[in-house]
TrEMBL record:
<feature type="transmembrane region" description="Helical">
    <location>
        <begin position="68"/>
        <end position="87"/>
    </location>
</feature>
<feature type="transmembrane region" description="Helical">
    <location>
        <begin position="25"/>
        <end position="48"/>
    </location>
</feature>
<keyword id="KW-1133">Transmembrane helix</keyword>
<feature type="transmembrane region" description="Helical">
    <location>
        <begin position="118"/>
        <end position="138"/>
    </location>
</feature>
<dbReference type="InterPro" id="IPR055568">
    <property type="entry name" value="DUF7144"/>
</dbReference>
<keyword id="KW-0472">Membrane</keyword>
<keyword id="KW-0812">Transmembrane</keyword>
<feature type="domain" description="DUF7144">
    <location>
        <begin position="27"/>
        <end position="135"/>
    </location>
</feature>
<dbReference type="Pfam" id="PF23636">
    <property type="entry name" value="DUF7144"/>
</dbReference>
<feature type="transmembrane region" description="Helical">
    <location>
        <begin position="94"/>
        <end position="112"/>
    </location>
</feature>
<protein>
    <recommendedName>
        <fullName>DUF7144 domain-containing protein</fullName>
    </recommendedName>
</protein>
Length: 139
């Protein structure tokens, strides 16, 4: 028997016996991958100087679209790497996921004037990742 009180659940790291993520970590790992892919696509569109984005006239965080494209591409690749780390239950995966999702949230916020609907959608995804991964119990 265990020394746990009645009704208490054991705290887990979210790893299965085969080294892959289990339960909520699998869900948030997939969301990290999704956010990463969306950021990579956004970055490619910016680097290609696509006409998809509007250019605000007066804005404090105004960079050329190529600069924003590289920022989103780098953040997107980092999100994908963190998502793979979370799905493989690597010890540093959760911390990396939370950190990169927070960076993605800030960069998307700064990008709102260029493409509001896309940025707000990815920001919502990043907030869900941050909220969920911060709530998962760790031993």
């Amino acid at each position: 028997m265990t020394d746990m009180p009645h009704g208490a659940r054991p705290r887990t790291t979210g790893a299965r016996d085969d080294g892959r993520a289990a339960g909520p970590l699998r869900y948030f790992g997939v969301l990290l991958l999704l956010s990463g892919v969306l950021s990579v696509l956004q970055g490619i569109a910016g680097i290609a100087e696509d006409r998809l984005f509007g250019v605000p006239r007066a804005y404090e965080y105004r960079f050329d679209l190529t600069g924003w494209g590289w920022i989103h591409l780098v953040v997107g690749v980092a999100l994908i790497m963190a998502g793979v780390a979370v799905l493989r239950a690597m010890p540093w995966g959760r911390a990396a996921g939370v950190t990169v999702a927070a960076i993605s949230l800030v960069t998307q916020f700064m990008f709102i004037p260029y493409y509001p609907l896309w940025s707000i959608s990815v920001m919502t995804l990043d907030l869900i990742i941050l909220w969920g991964m911060a709530r998962i119990a760790v031993t």
